[in-house]
Amino acid sequence: MMRIITGKAKGVRLYTLPGDAVRPTTEMAKEGIFSAIQFDLAGKTFLDLFAGSGQMGLEAISRGATSCTFVDCSEDSLKAVRKNIEKTGFSAQSRVIRSEYGEYIKAASKKGQSFDYIFCDPPYDKDLTAELIKRILRGGLLKPGGLLMVEGANDTLQEDKIPEAVMETVESIKQYKFSKCYVYFVRTKGQAE
Questions:
Q1: 24, 87, 94, 145: most buried by Cβ count inside 10 Å?
Q2: Which H or E run includes 115?
Q3: What CATH number is attached to the domain comprising 66?
Q4: Full residue range of the structural domain in which residue 128 is found
Q5: pTM higher than 0.90
Q6: Which DSSP category does 189 fall into?
Q7: CA triplet 90, 27, 172: central angle to 5 degrees?
């Protein structure tokens, strides 16, 4: 059972797709992630990439983020996201987009869109950690001082796959282990707004 942990929608149970098609972020990982950022969310923008059920973005709004953009390429996942947005009452703060991640990053970059927080939970079998960090930072989707969080199944981020010019924009990369998953926190240089 997934639920909103705290904030305006505390305790609201969220709908998730049956079966193994979508692997939601575990309660332990979600709690750990939001414990690290909870005091900085008020008034901030959030991107939930590979949104699945939308639980991470909805948790962010519940804790004070002003808005969240939910992106997934699966219409079934986006139906779950829309159901959960309705259950939490966060329609006004939510934007739902059906897109493959690379196309979304390209389009958002062209429009000059950027976010304070970005959470990515790509399929574990694709090993997209370095690729996502590179594309998101190169595309300017993360504001200065912003935080990118990428969940994965292993602890082998190959920083050599991230171009030096991109790494120059990074203040820090930290890795956290939550049960069976790893989450990389990538903070960009600059002052958070």
A1: 94
A2: strand 115-120
A3: 3.40.50.150
A4: 2-17+26-188
A5: yes
A6: S
A7: 90
